[in-house]
Each structure stands twice: as structure tokens, then as C-alpha cells.
Amino acid sequence: MEVEYEGPIKYCKYQRKGMRMKAPRWTSWTNDNLGHGSYGCPNYQVGFVQSCGFFEWHNESLTGKAKELLNKMKVERRLLLA
């Protein structure tokens, strides 16, 4: 998760004390969306606070050989840490 990033600032719909909250940028590490960046509500993964549901893709996901290599590296890392 990146809170400070280059480019236009994205804000979610959730407000705290009347102030809009900056939407952090996330990087997906799932096999389907590997390397695909997105902006989302900062409360998305906080269990006790309700998320506003804001979500927007930031860039294109990886394809082809790059995606295949990163997925292979993820598997190898898991095996090394086991």
C-alpha cells in the first residue's frame, strides 16, 4: 500500500470529521491481477469500520512472460519460506 504517490491524488467517498480521505494505491499480488495497481478506500481491509466501496484501477495488469515469471517467483518464495 502506498499513501504517498506521484500523479493525481485520488479521494474516496468516506469522510472523517468532514475531510475527504486520500485513497491509497495498492498493488495486487493475486495470480489473475499480478502487478495491477488500484486505488481504494483506506477502510477496505479494516474490519470494524465500514468501507465506502471506492475502487479504481491504476494501470494495466502484467501479461505474458512477465506475469508467468512473477507467479513462478511467488511459488519459489513460498517454498523457501516453508
Architecture overview:
The protein is α+β, with helices and mostly antiparallel strands and 82 residues long. The chain has one helix at 64-81, and strands at 11-16, 19-22, 25-27, 37-40, 55-57. The strands form two sheets. A three-stranded antiparallel sheet has the order 3-4-5, with no helix packed on it. The protein starts with 10 loop residues before the first strand and ends with a helix. The mean pLDDT is 82.
Concise summary:
It contains one helix and five strands. By secondary structure, it is α+β, with helices and mostly antiparallel strands. The model has no long low-confidence stretch (mean pLDDT 82).
